[in-house]
Design brief:
CATH superfamily: Glutaredoxin
Number of strands: 4
Structural class: alpha+beta
Shape: globular
Strand order of the largest sheet: 2-1-3-4
Number of helices: 8
Number of domains: 1
Helix content: 40-55%
Distance between the termini: 24 Å
Order of helices and strands: EHEHHHHHHEEH
Radius of gyration: 17 Å
Oligomer: single chain
CATH topology: Glutaredoxin
CATH architecture: 3-Layer(aba) Sandwich
Amino acid sequence: MSNQSTDDALVVYSDYVCPFCYLGKAAMEQYLAEADDPPAVEWRFYDLRGYQRDASGELREDVDDGKDDDYFEQARENVERLKDEYDVEMALDFSRDVDSWNAQQAALGVREQHGEAAFLRFHEAVFDALWQDERDVGDPDVLAAIAADVGLDSDEVRAATADETLAAGLRERFERAQQAGISGIPTFVYGGHAARGAIPPHQFERLVDGPN
């Protein structure tokens, strides 16, 4: 896989509706809290369900993705195991009913208008709203309320979900992720090396520092 990343940043490709992204985020934060010289983190957008979108951008439930009930039961078991291993409280299954496009578009708008610190506040709050509170982060009104909770303009964030320029920018970022060889999430990239999945804290150390 060819990865384009900033050598001194830990690049994370994720989507809010991916439970393993939330778990991987928690494991990454455990690693960062204990690292002697933790790297900066750069979040990048990825459309987990892009293959299900029609020409209008709507998700189509009739697209055969090969994921049957057995697949989702195995995924649930893996999430249950990892949430215990990483000591993460989270709700399960709700994400399957949520389209994350509006949330990612709003987050891009916050980043472009207000910078990285504001983006990170909103980004963290969106993740928690979905996985802690089971709120539909695809709803512009929910996103507006989340924005207000973290000190951002709710009307501005609501408007961002309908901004065609931001939509085009988000599509471009999704395409860049594919061109970089990202085919699943979460994917963590550092110095040209990558690890995929909700990896444990010690694996982040190997990714960033190399084998001892």
